[in-house]
Amino acid sequence: MRSGIWLSLVMLMGLVVGGCAGRQDLETPDYEAIYDMPLEEMWPSVREYFTDANLPYREDRGSLVLETEWKQEFGGSKIAGYWHRYMVIGKRETPTKSKLWIIRITKTVNKALAQPGRQLDWGAGRGLGGPPGDRGTGAPGDASASEAYGISVEDDADRLAFPVGENAFYVDSGQGTRDLTMEWRVFRGIMPKFAKQQAVRAEQQVAKAPGAKDAPAFTECGQSILGLKKLAQEGGVLLLGELHGTQEVPRFIAQSVCQLVTAGMPVTVGLELPVENEERISTFLQSQGGEVDWLKLMEAPFWRSPYPDGRGSEAVANMLEQLRQLRAQGLDVAVFVYDHPKLSGQQREDALTKTVLAQVKATPKRFHLVVSGNVHPRTAKGLPWDKQYKPMGYLLKDQVEDVTALDMAYDSGTAWICAADAQGRKLDCGVKEAKGKDNGDRFFVHRWNSANKEGYHGVFYVGHVTASEPAINKGLGNPDAAPASAP
Predict the structure, then answer these.
(1) CA 77/CA 89 separation, integer angstroms
(2) pLDDT tier at 161, thresholds 50, 70, 90
(3) Which pLDDT score is estimated for 481?
(4) 3-class SS string, the chain
């Protein structure tokens, strides 16, 4: 009964006079998408959707199950490091209604998704041949060894199932979860084709850049960030207070932007980089991303600071590449920088606020995602060492109606941090431990009922953190360049 009611509501809300449709609600419903038709009638459109979305698949036609090939985040970025595939299972709700279960399977080149204890060998080696004491060990006398490792017949089946070439990844990084976001994306793509009224438009919208000829039917943006889309409003400002120098925060930003623009919300990203780099970064984002384009981006003095504090990390450079790729696909992504490093104290906060405010006022129909160290976003007056201090967030909230500040939450790990040495005479920059609290592996956003004493309205969580070194240590941030040293 409930499924029939909400399906009717979806169809009714899609009716718009003149055949046009506004942007869909960004947030994914927390209930299943039910198709008001038998599974066998719906399934051919499922095949068509995945074909049109450029998601090749294999199908078990006897059981109405298909599995897509691996798809890399951000349209095939060489530096994203994450791949996803989908298992799509058709299910009968009733004889006349049906639904899909879509399982997202994720792999990564690092072992961030590995299950605890998976690296231990709990059983006997599976190697074949060679002296009994050497089997499965990779020892010189082990006939099952391949180079330095013991590989068995059973291992070959696993190894050959891996993506190859640019899609290669390491073992022990798999993770599978049900993906309601993808289920609703497919639903919105299929249902208009079955609607009797031509004005019904239930498909998910994308934010297409002005002047773009086309936008992709599907872009892989990673697993949905819980709670993010509820905060995305036209003209709104989301301030993220981060710990510089991690791999996870730049990925969180790139994923957030990707998920919002593919849901119909144009996004402008504000980065705490020197304003002198505005033209250089803008040029890179509009470029083809070739080697010369990378060199022009990275020749700015900012990337070669004697005290690299994490804002010039490899992860930040790679994030710019991911945003460039989204723009290149015709998605409405913009970036600006707003730091004034020659100023300090309250003068700097005033200058940061002025630059950010100018961007927000100039583009009131966009959502603004502004990232900085965790002092600037605070919307409360005062700091422990200066009770009259007015952070950027405090100044912005009086001039912009929708300002939300989120502090960073994370599981323990490492970060590239600059801190005073033991004598307190100079900055010591390098990989250091970062202590946090484990709240799982999945990115999420959580808003509290009221702001805390620092003026934060909630947190954004990025899981276990891993240090990201300065981009110049990694081939000038060029994703095609070999690392400066072996990992």
Answers:
(1) 28
(2) very low
(3) 52
(4) CHHHHHHHHHHHHCCCHHHCCCCCCCCCCCCCCEECCCHHHHHHHHHHHHHHCCCCEEEECCCCEEEECCEEHHHHCCCCCEEEEEEEEEEEEECCEEEEEEEEEEEECCCCCCCCCCCCCCCCCCCCCCCHHHCCCCCCCCCCEECCEECCHHHHHHHHCCCCHHHCCCCCCCEEEECHHHHHHHHHHHHHHCCCCCCCCCCCCCCECCCCCCCCCCCCCCCCCECCHHHCCCCCEEEEEECCCECHHHHHHHHHHHHHHCCCCCEEEEEEEEHHHHHHHHHHHCCCCCHHHHHHHHCCHHHHCCCCCCCCEHHHHHHHHHHHHHHHCCECEEEEEEECCCCCHHHHHHHHHHHHHHHHHHCCCCEEEEEEECCCCCCCCCECCECCCCCHHHHHHCCCCCEEEEEEEEECEEEEEEEECCCCCCEEEEEEEECCCCCCCCCEEEECCCCCCCCCCEEEEEEECCECCEHHHHCCCCCCCCCCCCC
pLDDT of residue 72: 86
Burial of 346-384, coded b for 16+ CB within 10 Å and e otherwise, reads eebbebbbebbbebbeebeebbbbbbbbbebbbbbebee
pLDDT of residue 120: 41
- Whether 112 shows a pLDDT value over 50: the answer reads no
pTM for the complete prediction? 0.78
Average pLDDT, the chain: 80
- Min mean pLDDT across 45-59, 201-215, 266-280, 435-449 is at 201-215
pLDDT tens digits, residue range 341-356? Answer: 999 999 999 999 999 9
Asked whether the CA dihedral 226, 231, 235, 240 is positive or negative, the reply is negative
Smallest CA-to-CA distance from 248 within 382, 415, 34 is with: 415
The full set of domain ranges for the chain reads 2-111+174-193, 120-170, 229-474
Domain 2-111+174-193 adopts which CATH fold? Answer: TATA-Binding Protein (3.30.310)
Q: What is the pLDDT of residue 76?
A: 63
